Here is the input.
Amino acid sequence: MQTNPSTAVGAGTTFHVAQANYYYGSFLAVSNVNLDIPERKITAFIGPSGCGKSTVLRCFNRLNDLIPGAHVEGTIQYRGVDLYDKSVDATELRRRIGMVFQKPNPFPKSIYENIAFGARINGYKGDMDELVERSLRKAALWEEVKDKLKESGLSISGGQQQRLCIARAIAIEPEVLLMDEPCSALDPISTLRVEDLMHELKEQFTIVIVTHNMQQASRVSDMTAFYNAQATEKGGKQGYLVEYAPTQTIFNNPAQQATQDYVSGRFG
Amino acid sequence: MTATDPNAFSQSSSAEQHFSSDLSGRYRLDNIFRIASWVATVTALVVLAFLLIDVLIDGIPRLDWQFITSFPSRSAERAGILAPLVGTIWLLFVTALFAFPIGVGAGIFLEEFAGDNLFARILEVNIGNLAAVPSIIYGLLGLAVFVRVFLPITGGRTVFSAGLTLALLILPVIIVATREALRAVPSSLRQAGMALGATRWQTVREHVLPQAFPGILTGTILALSRAIGETAPLIVIGAQTFVPFVPSFRGTGFSALPIQIFNWVGRPQAEFHVNAAAGIIVLMIVLVAMNATAIYLRNRFQAEKM
Ligand SMILES: Nc1ncnc2c1ncn2[C@@H]1O[C@H](COP(=O)(O)OP(=O)(O)OP(=O)(O)O)[C@@H](O)[C@H]1O
Ligand SMILES: [Mg+2]
Here is the structure.
């Protein structure tokens, strides 16, 4: 991917989204999103269920391409290059933009193989054992699994599985990490571990996280985007971006009344 | 079942008004359905057992080494089943060799790569239709295509042609079984693979296919079992009932167990009916061996996939 100077945006911007509409078939799921996601910062997406947080997130690594009928109008740029440009290869893009899903989804293979797979298919040339250990250590999982690397990735607890998925994602050294409610299946201790991990990881990666946990958003993120949904004439629900600002502002001094209501728990 | 007392707990008064749990009525329905399904099972088993015992009583005394290793003969006592047995085993291999890779490949393409477009939907409907085409039609197709058109390759009325015809016959079943097995693999696994920068094929090969493999194998074995019991297409292709030599892959003149059994049953002499019973036992042994292999393979893959 080469940068295109004419469309390049300010340095330090990972994703530049302008007037983007997200569709599933003819259904407009999220309308008119404008965002600049800063590099090496944590950006949180919050908002009620069904307002389109996952949709916006899944388009950053073009995983929505897998859903028949899903498409986007408008501009989404990654480091100045249009994501949906013909010259962009989605497979290569996904190597650079890692993802952690809401539900832990380790491969039904050994813990070792879970991490080695991504490295192998992307032509990793270094020492695989060392990479597996390093990734597991970064994800704060090494101590718990170092004696059972040959066991199934499904044989560990849900929280451990989620950290395995994080280890798997960071093993291939992505530039961005997208996390869709990574802690929704975790206990408070595992959640704190993942949050600590995010603080460490943001030295290297840009992180975008979807969360329903207000405290989590205020604890970990630098920027926060609040989405909401409104009823359409057809009876469906249409998501839109209400407000995007530094997390401090969103939680203490938001511009919109809806944001104020949502973050303080007086919603709906 | 031990008798339980639905009133063992003290009742909360408000729930009492909104729900009528009618436990005894629901348990009665439970019992009715349990008995009904038990009757269905037993009926099927009794019929099968009856057939089996009948065949075993007739055939077991006839089943000896001489029977297995002899060629056909005009006298029932000297007739044997060697040529059709070898023919059936040949057919099994040829059919599996062609039907398995092509069927699984087509299933993978349709499920994982084709997407949801008009072309894929037309294919899907047609494959469903193909599965319902009578087997004799496949025999005619095989006669026209494999025996006549591909004569230089197949050698005409040979095991090769017959195997290809049976492969066509079971192809739709294998394709459908493959697609069902792939569909049962959760899409989160595909997303996980592709989110790591794997291509579609890498994801399918490394993660999806191993999960689906036991199901694919079961479908294939069921289809193969059906294929080796087929008679009609083999008759059209030109299977014979008097083959006094071991058939070869591309040699003219082959036989198969169902053909031989059918022929013996049709003879007036009672001794040949005994031969037919013994032949049925041999066919069943082949089937059981096949299923055992399938179960063995499936368990091995299941152990591997964790
Ligand atoms: N695969 C899909 N096909 C069609 N419509 C979809 C699909 N996925 C999501 N949608 C629709 O898009 C809208 C936004 O969904 P999305 O999953 O992005 O919401 P969300 O904000 O992530 O919600 P939650 O907080 O519950 O995860 C919803 O109206 C949903 O019905
Ligand atoms: Mg979501």
About this structure: Residues 23-59 of chain B form the longest helix (37 residues).
